[in-house]
Amino acid sequence: VGRGVLERLARELAAEPPGRPLVPISDDRVAVLHAEPLARRLRHGGVEVLPVLRFPAGEASKIRETKARLEDQLLRLGVGRDAAILAVGGGVTGDLAGFVASTWCRGIPVVHVPTSLVAMADAALGGKTAVNARGAKNRVGTFHQPWGVYADVSLLATLPDAEYANGMAEVVKTAAVGDASLFRWLEGAVERLLARAPAAQAHAVEACLRVKARIVRRDERDCGRRAALNFGHTVAHAIEAASAYREPHGRAVALGMCAEARLACRRTGFPASHLRRLETLLAALGLPTRLPAGRRWGTRSLLAAARSDKKARAGRLRCALPRRLGRMPAGDDVTCEIDDAALSAALGALAARGPRSD
Ligand SMILES: NC(=O)c1ccc[n+]([C@@H]2O[C@H](COP(=O)([O-])OP(=O)(O)OC[C@H]3O[C@@H](n4cnc5c(N)ncnc54)[C@H](O)[C@@H]3O)[C@@H](O)[C@H]2O)c1
Predict the structure, then answer these.
(1) Which pTM does this prediction carry?
(2) Pairing relationship of beta strands 317-320 and 335-338 according to DSSP bridges
(3) Is the minimum distance from the CB of 118 to ligand 1 under 6 angstroms?
(4) Which of 137, 255, 288, 300 is packed most tightly, with the most Cβ within 10 A?
């Protein structure tokens, strides 16, 4: 993690390549900005690199059809089991290219070069790969640990503001579930982060990856504690669905954390003062803490969407709830079952015009 990481990647790939050739995969936006220049730099350093395989940018491409198209291209290029995939892009590229790598010739190495804040601070590490199937998010996928993850924060310079905000929500989430001192640091670093100071970005990304690595090492296959990383996401998915995906993921996660922190106040003893700190930090980072005014969807449609969420096992809704900022409950099960009345009260509080309504 840091600046100048791509030089190190070039050196390491030249010295000991995980596969030959290297096949870069990227979306069409990031291909031009970062994947093509990186491929040229690697070739210049003597690494055997094929042309960049591209797909249209956006979540809509994270589907089985795109995977099949990429595999057809690998076939045409005669790529065999000695190759390795180089995933250059956001979380969509990482999930898709990681999935391709995990099944190509029964599995070839993948190297991640994340380019969005979501991918750097979260998605590139941990080995989860997936595509969506008929709208069911991440329904088809594998666990396939990367050969390496090289997060060069200088690539964030071209990231649009809305995408940066999406990443910030995941950074706050990671601090909230796993690192109280990172949370405190974020509270003091808001201006530097909003100004996109590279040193601050590198600190935040590295701290998030440490938290994620610690959690994943303990529960690689997502059977227990890894659910901590879903804090805010049960309600976030409901907000995304109820708003017909007009609310961007990061804003939905911010709102989801505010709702779920309220649930945590009742269920795990999460201090009310920590709820206020969470809301203050999110608001300072430009993320919402109250449902948007003038929205067409009400708390009733949110409740319906929450119930149909995949985490509603056997008709019951579960949320991963911290005990305090930076700390999850002990043990393997970090989720609590939430009944409709509690959820509706928490959502009601989000709908109320609060001091930080945006
Ligand atoms: N595998 C995991 O553990 C994990 C964790 C979190 C999220 N995810 C997945 O990640 C995806 C979201 O990731 P995302 O937000 O990065 O989405 P994304 O990959 O679609 O990137 C968002 C947008 O930013 C653009 N972009 C990326 N880097 C850029 C850069 N440096 N400069 C300019 N534009 C850039 C992309 O072209 C795209 O338009 C979701 O599909 C989610 O399910 C996976």
Answers:
(1) 0.96
(2) antiparallel
(3) yes
(4) 255
